[in-house]
Design brief:
Elements: E1 31-35, E2 43-49, E3 52-63, E4 76-83, H1 98-112, E5 123-133, H2 138-152, E6 162-169, E7 172-175, H3 179-184, E8 187-194, E9 199-203, E10 206-207, H4 211-244
Parallel strand pairs: 4-5
Antiparallel strand pairs: 1-2, 2-3, 3-5, 6-7, 6-8, 8-9, 8-10
Helix pairs in contact: 1-2, 2-4
The structure holds uridine-5'-diphosphate.
Uridine-5'-diphosphate is lined by residues 88, 92, 99, 134-139, 179, 182.
Amino acid sequence: MGGTPLPDGIKLMDEQGRRIDGRLPGELRPLKIEAGVLRRADGSAYLEMGHNKVMAAVYGPRECHPRHMQDPTRALVQCHYNMASFSVDDRKRPGPDRRSQEISKIISEALTHVVFTEYFPRTSIDVYIEVLQANAGTRCAGLTAASVALADAGIPMRDLVASCAAGKVANTMVLDLGKEEDNFGQADIPLGYIPRTEEVVLLQMDGDLTADEFRTGLGMAADACKKIYDVQRDALRRRYVVADDGGSEGVK
Ligand code: UDP
């Protein structure tokens, strides 16, 4: 990020305005979501967005431990984001680091905005996000999957959160940056958004943008979140259609 020089021979955008993976600037990577994929979890979702592969599992509401963390007025939504050591080209050192702590915190905060936490005082709602394969945009992929997993767990929510990033690559505003674009691009703005109410629940920015570019990027990411929201709802709908039919492989 921040306009790191590209290795020789690599171009982030060609003369026709196609990106390094062939997408147009406003195009998302292919997105697939499946709800209810883990038998032991209270709710779960598996998501693929381009080469990102993410599993989200929800446990709770359950008694919060250690007890001194309990809030007598509401549930704590506690996200645990983890990137598997085999999820990236260079082996990632296992265990928590500053990046995973930051991502866990911002996703916990985003989800707290949509869960009716006041219904479950003194409890914890634990959301595990495991990144199995990473190709940039994993915080957005994780938040999108976690939101479906919470709904799959039957946890009362105001709405689903959809998430996607916009950014600047080769002086062009683009949607949903891939790995090379994230590494060698000029800016990245991950957004967590509630399309129905148009509320922003996660917003970060890495790199430099003018105010106009920032507004353009935010608009692109918000529009993309509306499409992602439809895929999330469709995953939940499919989950319950299958369950009504008497269940099938892969459904709890
Ligand atoms: N990445 C990596 N090793 C790490 C952390 C990140 O290879 O220890 C890669 C991974 O593909 C990730 C990308 O860099 O998706 C961008 O990471 P960033 O911190 O920007 O978060 P993300 O875009 O995944 O939300």
